[in-house]
Write a structure and sequence with these properties.
By secondary structure, the chain is an alpha/beta fold. The protein has two domains: 209 residues, P-loop containing nucleotide triphosphate hydrolases (Rossmann fold, 3-Layer(aba) Sandwich), CATH 3.40.50; 62 residues. It has ten helices and 13 strands. Bound molecules: adenosine-5'-triphosphate. Pfam families: ABC_tran.
Length: 288
């Protein structure tokens, strides 16, 4: 479905992509990881037809650089940096919907699921939204329409835990008929969402691994933990994950979205000195 054939890209004398060969099939969910400057965004920009390059890129046989509008009809894109648009949110969604031949209501519905109150923000200029609100709106624009490819550059970085859970549910609803390319410089952010990991380093693909899909995207884990003593820092962190204090700051309960488990454990590992027990229970799900 997506092919990169000997693709190289040079900015002035800086070779940023170095003979990339890639074949991505329908239904694959790919984490594109690598350190800052590895070439991930440049690879995505070539796929979207924004840059010239040496070699060949095709999406369903179409060449993005030549047939850009046809290719972009198929691709939903969430950029890493929101564009500095002054256009009011309502107008932006209307414009995006007409460009993509979809109903604006579909985009507004996705925005509402992610927790945006459209009535309150539709008259605001896009640039005036908070980072998280911009990200939610860009996700809504990318996902509130039919696409066969979703390309997302650090899509969940600014989302709170509840919105992340909804975002994972939205992805889960499209597994069958969508190819996803999710870029991040943190593997733990995206690993549970994908079935293939591509790692880039200095313009080359240095690792290409198929991974087991054993985490349900829409599932939740009931978590309980107990602490040796109560501490403000861990309490603040747990409240940020919407956990409830069940007794003097020593016992906590909450839910963690399945794909967020690595991220959660990474957070909790900072307080391992005060942790006396932790359980993550897949079966109970729902309310803890
Ligand atoms: N428009 C540009 N003009 C000149 N150099 C560029 C341009 N875009 C990217 N580069 C350079 O290309 C290299 C790869 O950048 P790229 O943004 O693709 O990396 P990345 O893997 O997405 O990094 P990050 O994780 O920091 O977003 C960097 O050295 C960057 O400075």
């Amino acid at each position: 479905m997506i092919n990169f054939n000997h693709v190289s890209k040079t900015f002035k004398r800086n070779q940023v992509l170095d003979h990339i060969d890639l074949n991505i099939e329908l239904g694959e969910r790919i984490a594109l990881v690598g350190s800052n400057g590895a070439g991930k965004t440049t690879l995505i920009r070539c796929l979207l037809g924004e840059y010239t390059y040496d070699g060949e890129v095709t999406v369903n046989g179409l060449i993005p650089r030549r047939e850009r509008s046809k290719v972009l009809q198929k691709i939903g894109f969430v950029p890493q940096l929101p564009p500095p648009l002054k256009m009011p949110v309502g107008q932006l969604v209307g414009f995006a919907a007409s460009l993509c031949n979809t109903e604006r209501k579909r985009m507004e519905d996705v925005a509402a699921r992610l927790g945006l109150d459209f009535g309150k923000i539709s008259h605001l200029p896009f640039v005036k939204l908070s980072g998280g609100m911009k990200q939610k709106l860009l996700i809504a624009i990318a996902m509130g329409r039919d696409t066969s490819v979703l390309v997302m550059d650090e899509p969940a970085a600014n989302l709170d835990p509840d919105a992340r859970h909804i975002f994972f549910e939205l992805l889960a609803e499209r597994l069958e008929n969508t190819t996803m390319l999710i870029s991040s410089h943190r593997l733990d952010e995206v690993a549970p969402l994908v079935n293939r990991v591509l790692e880039m380093d200095r313009g080359k693909v240095v690792l290409d691994d198929r991974v087991a899909e054993d985490v349900s995207l829409s599932g939740k884990l009931a978590c309980r933990l107990t602490l040796r003593r109560s501490e403000e820092a861990i309490a603040k962190a747990l409240l940020g994950w919407n956990f409830r204090d069940m007794g003097g700051g020593l016992e906590w309960q909450g839910n963690v979205a399945g794909p967020d488990r690595l991220r959660f454990l990474g957070m909790i590992s900072r307080y391992v000195g005060v942790l006396t027990s932790i359980s993550l229970d897949e079966d109970k799900g729902g309310e803890a």
